[in-house]
Amino acid sequence: MDTKSMAGETTITINQTLHGYRGGHRLLSSSVELSDIEKRFMLLMSDYSGSGIEKGFTEYLTGYPIPSSKFYVFAKTWYANEMNRPGCVWTHSLLIDVTDLWSIRDMRVLLNEFNRPESTNDHEFYSFSKPVLNIPVFFSYADFNDTFFGISCELYDRSELGLVLLGESSLQYENEILLIWNWQWPRLKRSFTFSTGSLSLRKFDELPFDLQVLPAKRERSVSIGERDIVNMVDMQGSVCSNEWIDDYRHIELSALQNYMVKYGSDVAGNRGNFVALLKSFFFFSKESNVELNSIKEFFRQTFIHPDQARILKVYLIDTLLKRATINGFDVLDLLVSSVPFSGLKWNYSNIVSSLYSRGQLSEFELIEILDKLSEQQSNQEAVLDILVSIDSKIWINKLRLSEEYCSKLLERSQVYESDPSIWSLDSLEQSIWFNAIYKQSSTRWDRVVNSMLQAKSDLFAHEVAEINRSATLFSIINWVSINKEQLSTVWYSILKDCAKDVTLLIMRHEILNRELMQIFLDTSSPHNDLWSDISWGDVSSFLLRVNATGIEPEITGIYTFLITACFNNNFSQPELLISELFQPLHDKLNYQNYDFNSWERFKWDMGKEIYGLIQQNIFSYYLQDKNLVPDWDRCEFLRRSLVAVYLKFGWNPITLVNTVSDRNTFEKVVEFGLKLNNGYRLFERIFYSMRNSDKYSVTFHYKVLKNALK
Description:
- The structure is a single chain.
- By secondary structure, the protein is α+β, with helices and mostly antiparallel strands.
- Among the domains are: 1-138; 554-708, no CATH class.
- The chain contains 34 helices and 13 strands.
- Strands 1, 2, 3, 4, 5, 6, 7, 8, 9, 12 and 13 form an 11-stranded mixed β-sheet that branches. A two-stranded antiparallel sheet has the order 10-11.
- Strand 2 and strand 3 (25-30) form a beta hairpin.
- The chain is elongated and about 125 Å long.
- It starts with a strand and ends with a helix.
């Protein structure tokens, strides 16, 4: 819902509907699209509240929430005496978003928004939402008369029953009812059901309305069974009186409502809790009234269930904790052992840290609390609560926990799986924690491995790798990518034992650094059968991330590694990848930029191929010592290797042209190739293919071959 604010005023946009008679009671107009459930419910609630006509009850107000909807409905109904059919009514309903409902300062301002149709056909007005100006209101003490407090007493004192007021007209108690609704806290306000004119007992979800006015003449229309679920009162003879209503008369209502809005938003929206909130306001609205003993006494009788009044309880405890004189042990004992507080999820870490920093709970006292509470089995959960919620560094080196305790801590919180402090303990305590972690069915082994790496511990490295290899490998790779640190020998050996998996993980990892690239080069093999299953897209994406690092000589090392795999024909489309790798690698080598280990592996793989071809060449006696490529001339070795693999594997010759994008490089490739029998025929085939192609006949490759083959 759209809400605008200016100078202390708010404008709330409210939707509306009109129900009336047209061949039966039906929805005639609406400013919002309603669900079928909303339509059916409003159709029922907007119809005439009984039968016959009672003087003074020909118009009345109704308030109710729509089940499973965001709307609260505030409606006005008029008897439609202009209709020929008896029992017809007009009902104008305001649909208020429940998030805006509590912010309306005076519900009575909405009365001005009701409009009775002037004719049976003019309904267009109701098809538009309407802005309602919510003006700050100053209530008069005259508004809060004996009738207001009398109805409040009857309504809240017997909250298990619906209140039925016997009246002479729908206007008789209208002002008081709207004021009562107005001063409720949000959750009650949006669930409150009322009617200022019920010609018969009105119900919501099979229970009577919280508050409704019944014509006094119709008192006997309420059946004996219905009288068991309602409190029927003639206010002229009401004698409701008790201590809380006397307090209510003297409390500033605006202050009470602000208090209820702040501390009652999580209090169940039933009328019985109104008195409880009122009493808590009387006792605790001033911080000076908040004492540990008074809190204990109040919650022995009120809001006993831990789910009730959580915000209020937190406020009271926070108020206590702000005091420099409070005994930290006493407060913690209240939180742990008192039923109304024990079910709340207190942030024990913050509480203990605050008490400890102010000297109100020493480290010794904390350990004493844990020891004291752990003496009784019933308090074991409290000990675990405290351990879970405070920094483990405070106690982990001071409490030697059994495997049972470690297991229960892990059941409560998985944070310990990620705690490096555990893996900084001595070997015996590490063993206890590891056994407890191992027995958990929901253990996140990636967290465990990460915490071990953080602590520089490899005591159980092989065990976690055996339990969950994929999580272990992923965590190691991820840790290295973030921390940029070298691994211990034990962790490194795990990567080497799983070389294929590690290769794939690194190739698909989003963040690369020098350490990961070195691991790739150290653990991967260009002869793995996995390369045939790796797509071009995976390799291309990997190369983009490699190049983005700008880290040398590792980039050149990976280029060398991949071209080694290609030259061994291990990829499904090696020529495609070679066309991306060859020229950039050649250029890097030309500037003496290379990775020693990957280059030596390349030389070892390709040397026998090159010199095997030369020895078979009929012109080899002309070459003699020229067959040997100096170690420094890595570019020449790479060029010869390119020719060798094309001859060995019989790849499509024309793809060699796409591989070499530099003219000088291509000339040297051709120069070596023409010295070989098969090489000459290879380049002859390439030349004739290019000569018959418009695409290639204009390239420098064609011109080089044309001159070389003369």
